[in-house]
Amino acid sequence: MESFELLLGGFAEALTPVNLLYALIGVTLGTLVGVLPGIGPAMTVALLLPITFTVPPASAFIMFAGIYYGGMYGGSTTSILLNTPGESSSMITALEGNKMARRGRAAQALATAAIGSFVAGTIATALLVVAAPAVVSFAIAFGPEDYFALAVLAFTAVSSVLSRSVVRGLASLVLGLAIGLIGIDQQTGQARLTLGIPQLLDGIDVVIVAVGLFAMGEAMYVASRLRHAVPEVVPVGRAWMGRSDWRRSWRPWLRGTALGFPFGALPGGGAEIPTFLSYAAEKRLARGVAREEYGKGAIEGVAGPEAANNASAAGTLVPLLTLGLPTSATAAILLAAFQQYGLQPGPQLFDHNPALVWGMIASLFVGNTMLLVLNLPLAPLWARVLRIPRPYLYAGIVLFAALGVYALNATVVDLVVLYLLGLLGFAMRRFGLPIAPAVIGMILGPMAEIQLRRALAIGAGDVGVLVRSPVAVVLLALSLLALLTPVFRRLLARRAPAAVAHVPREED
Amino acid sequence: MSESGNPTTGPAEKRARWWRPELGLALVVLALGGFVIAGTLEVSAAASRLGVGPRFFPMLVGGAMILVGLCYVADVLRGGRGDPEESEDVDLDAPADWRSVGLVSGVFLGFTAVLDALGWIIAASLLFFGLSVALGAEHRLRAAGVGVLLGISTYLLFVKGLGVTLPGGVLRGVI
Fold this sequence. Notes:
By secondary structure, chain A is mainly alpha-helical. Chain A contains 20 helices and 2 strands. Chain A has one domain.
């Protein structure tokens, strides 16, 4: 029970008044950006990177973790109260959640989402405590070829799972990899792809890329197709649920957690697949009232996917902390945050910075509890946030994006790069290229290069070194499998046409 | 709205046309691949004796870009199409409003041009006002008021409170 002691130490770190304050700021900001359309936790953490440079790392990560978890809570509020699918991870929640809200059960939908998120988040964080040391002890023997294979798996899995078209996912990935190449080569000091512009020698900062692709891109995309009808927000009071709701919710919560955590931990697993699976499972298991209500607003269809959603967020942290492997855009930004502090997540991080790692993990428990308190009574307040007029919202988002980017180096060149990346983000949205592979490629690409060169140096130029270890072979084989998903998908599609696109219609 | 699946498959869209806007993006990926390779060739290979130098990985990435770019171009030519991203505030049925995009671009680039001269407070207020009007804000006076309020409050919070560097411009010394 060594990790239990370390966790207690982590609580000592997380429960200091200063860190409690950072956790509170984190979860509040996280919920806010989760509720607001157009911005998410990835961009928020990116924007805060330059400002938090003076904050000690433990406090910064406690705040970032709060933003990450808070974003998950906030997303569910939006999808329940607004009848438009927002982030892909809360799309499934909208199916039953919004129908519940329209039937006057918004309070119960919000309550089961918040309490389910709390239950799932807590259990999944406990699983993280157990799983992380196990993965660390396994990964401690990893060589550079294994890390390279891991990166390849992350690239291919994220590209093929996040988009319905693998070639579009890969296009996003290579764009990110190319951006990551710009700047001075870390090993030889050679300038690469800088076009002779001195400002590019340090590479393009991850903050500019993230903010450009997410905030600027979203603002321009919204400008091109703004929904002019005022969004209809279902009015809601305090979130609460009755005895029968509890009876109907607890099992879906647990099942959702069981689905969400492992998928979150897998490269490319993400939150979409487990939320969808949880929705489908609850539908199949529905009996009695639930069966009648399914499709008209069954509480099970909110409880399960919301739990899966939050559990997957905790699952994402397993490969991030133990292997330095980001499996989502937010995780990639968190990885960049670690690098900003000169830290490299991986087995060594647990050895060298136990206070930081365990403080962050302990803060997840703390933040989860705060989020429950913040979300149950304050639901009406968050609902009001949804009524911000859209022109003001997006103008404000761009203003803060410009602020965060200018604050990096105090140069207008960065703002122009921000605009160009915004154009790219706009085009990617317009043509259905997922953003996450680009962000992951940009951040993980340079590390993949270092591991590749290290491995080849050990092998003295022999490429066979890359498949020397069985771990690397398995990982590369899985990568190949990920690239072949369109073949599987075509086979599946032949059986159930357009099952993914028409979730609610998939009657059996 | 979301349940209706792909909304824009009208009869006009089904007709196979040679040029489509998405082809532009695919060609950009392809061209950037060529650019990465060309740019990498300029990097001198004077490198470590063991293992590979600074050219190896960029060549891999450039090669991958060209390969992916070719597949992407082929996919678009064969009639493949990406689904525009769904978002809370996006109406996928609406035709693209290029005037708004142009206005947003103009306002933002204008902001970058005047930022250093006018300073953050004035430039940011103008940015907010311009963008919100471009995006269809109805009460212009209110948009201007919110803009000024945001410009001043962000300046005070970030410069005075958090020590971030923002240009003072013409108001330097006043605030």
